[in-house]
Amino acid sequence: MSQTREDLHSLLYDLAEEAIEIAQSNSDGDIIETTEVPYLERRYQTIDDSIDGSRIIRTTEEESNKNEISTDVLRDTSQQLQETEIYDRVISEVESREFESLIVPSPESSVTAYIQSILNGAKNGVSDRDIARHISIFTSEIDSAPISWNPKIWILGLDIEDDSVQLEENITIRKPDEDDLVEEIRIEDDAGFNRRATGMPERAPTAIIEFSKRAPDRRDIYDTIQVMISVLQLYDVGSVSSMKVDLHTESIIKPFPLPGRYNSPDTPFSYTISESEISDLSLFYTHMYEVVEERLYSTDEQDYLTISFDRYENAIEENDSPESQLTSAIMSLEAMLLKDEEKGELSERLSRRADILLGLFGHQPIEISRKIKTAYSIRSRYVHGSETDQDYGEDLVSDIVDYTRNCIVIYLLLSEDFPKEKLLSKLDNASVQAESREALSEKIQEVVPEWAI
């Protein structure tokens, strides 16, 4: 008869006590033997006193030692434990669990990781409560149950006026500080390689996002971060992007990732959250997260909305030329506002439908129509390799990208009630019939709240 779940907890507790006893016997006295392990503290410095987004020009490095359990003690203790009855009983119980092989490599390696975590915690003394916490984490992991993750994300393209913003109860956006620009790297045999292990940032982040979430695997956390950034990209026109992700978790057996490598994406657009906007941002994020996750990331199939959002991301990330940004933004609008079979007068159709839709939310229709026609003309000349008129006003790009962002938000919220073809037909009717326009406005206002646009 297999052991019950309660029996596994008892077995793991007995195994922990046995491991500590063997480790102590392999050391000199009751204290488990430790060894000094060299670490490198690297501190990045910015070009001026400001940290937010400043270029990093210099670093200081300082070596130090930390006392850690000797690798010889860890190895000898594991080998001696493998000859005990309690070890065999734990392995038998773990083998009976149904776990994902990609997450938990093998029962033996899992139990070895558990033993090491107990011994690492025991170098400064371990209590019954400490052992119980290790057991809880370990059993959760072999059962693929959610564990706690606490990522720290370096963000570009988003600034905040206050020191910190509470986006939700467990999500904080804050200004970066000097401690964020410090890395601690374990120096192994190839010190030169490890000194370069995490790369070198070109600039400091403009903001830091920290949150906590229970999830069975780090892939779920990366998915959450992807949706989070997309929502922030849609709140305002900003090239919000992740510069680095550091994952922190109490995981015992799952692969623990190294600190994220730095990248410095182009951020041609950015926005700042003022104190008065905090409640609006929080409301937008809370309501739009599930919409964005379900509509843009819960399917592998492309449709007009996923294509439109991809083009919008291109527009806010490209830094080659204004023409390239306009082209991506217009392509995004085309995916939403033109029917697949439509030919001819595309500029007129696109601008008319955009000015009707955005006009329902307080935008000036005549201005929208004029700017979209101008942008469409630039886009057409650009994609056909012709020279473009450079005298079109520096605000045109940001306005067109903002129109695109607004349309995506509206479509995301309307997609269940108004399929694309249905909405386009109603927009066409609204352009020629005042009654149709009023009816459409009333219906849309019921679905799209004021905070969305």
TrEMBL record:
It comes from Halorubrum trapanicum. This is Apea-like HEPN domain-containing protein. It comes from the Archaea.
